[in-house]
Amino acid sequence: MDDTNDSQNTLTRRQVVAGGAVGLAGLSGGCLGPIQNVLGLASASQVSLRVVAPPVDWDRRANAIAGRLVSRLEQVGIDARFPLLPPKQFREQVLYRRDFDMYVGTMPVGRDPDFLRSLLHSTHTNDLGWQNPFGFTDKTLDERFDDQRRQSGSQRTGTIHDILRTIANEQPFVPIATDNAIAAVRSDVADAFDGWQRVPLREPIWLLGIDPVEGAEPRQTFRVTTKNDLPTEQLNPLVPWISEFDPTTSLLYDPLARRYDGSIRPWLAREWSVDGAELTLTLRSDLRWHDGEPLTAEDIRFTYEFISDTSLGSSDADYPVPRFRRQASLVDTVEVLGQRRVRMSIDASPPVTPMALTLPLLPEHVWQSRTDVVDMRAGLTRAITHANTNPVGSGPMALESRRGGHTLRLRRFDHHPINRDDGSELADRFGPLAFSELEMLVTPSDLNMVEFLEGGEADVTVPRLDNELVSRIESKESLSLATSSSRTLYHVGFNARRRPLHTPGFRRAVAHLLNKARIVETVFDGYARPRTVPVHDRSWVPDDLRWNGGDPEVPFAGIEDELDIERAREHFRSAGYYYADGGQLVY
After folding, report:
1. I need a labelling partner for 65 at 20 to 30 A (CA). Which of 135, 275, 332, 336 fits?
2. Could you tell me the pTM of the whole model?
């Protein structure tokens, strides 16, 4: 059966029901049974939900969580279906078409809570990528998101606490756990380099942190294996569903500043200073693009204007870049002061301001022609849809060759600040690169990645291995295990544009069905941390929302891992829904 057609047919039936009862729903808060009986209308429909998830060979853990959720939904009288979507179709339906009821997947969690603004602000309900894919709206929360951008110290912390309490109460999505990044490394390669844990494994600059061990045989080519073929086919850093953890575009394109060693620090920028609402920045000297053209202050001005409107004013509407709209929105204007200096007008407090410098710089001479509107409804120009298979960036590596779906080869860009011995703090910290070439090899599965290492065909896996392979890696003398915490959040997403998922009470009732502690123990084998709220740094979490052996806001409706069905059903009744004689949840 075609899942896409099935989804469309289901939606049509549901819209018919919703359209005919919208007035009654407004009066009854979702409890239509008594009113329908009085008016002599047809019996209410059973709640039917479609939970999409990736297949086992792509993400076993998301698949397992979805399977448990569907089983629990059926136990409480909901007609639940569980179609599996290949990765490309999953991204399209969730992050582009918004064609889902619920999904189980992963998202990147920003280090600063400001990332929640683009994730949940109501102005982004029609945008793409990780800009409010849930269709969630709360005008009061919107105001708090805007407030925290202009606050500092304890005042901002208090506002963040209020925001997290509102999110926990309304459950626009259910945070489950952040997993551990797991990679396998050939033992001879692990012994030849230091610094494997210097940068967290799933950060885009992870491999920049390793250094050759003195006396070890130098390696010209470093071979990384992955099951994700997207980096070999799509080298556009603006694509909405490319993760911020993507190493490929992050090695090709550089920002003015990056977060490392606990704070946002100068990268292509040599320094900056902030005076009130103005930030003055100076570039490092002699920066160049991969094609040899100089990188100047004009490219900075162009980048911020382009990311704010990729049509560059050629259309009646603005077409911003969804992926970096949050950072660009912090900057009102960019004034060029010279070849290497700019002045930015910033609409944010000092703690938030440096985040404006973390988007990738784009060469004006390459991107200025990509302004054609290709999808007016979705707000897309050629800048966002272009595959960009011949990228010109300024990162520490440049494209050498690619074979779509199979391999990608990058070469060291010797003109980059970390690769030239200029005595800068950046060069001392990261450079020069420990290898001359990086080869990315695509394989079908996690197991195949490990087998590539065992057969000597690759040196390291991307740090997204399934925890089920840990025992195999540890049992092989030829392999070493590398792990670190990550900011990848497994979660259940709701489409709040659809009934009954538009009501917080219903979403909370669903959240009560999930035993997060048990999921971490059995699905992740302990290689994860349960989450009550979607932030990485514990210091932002108010005491009343911290994990205490269970979720303090939506505790599991059961004992051990056994669902108390009557207790779970009571949560749905409290949300305004009721049960038919056959035990079906109806509305």
Report:
1. 135
2. 0.91
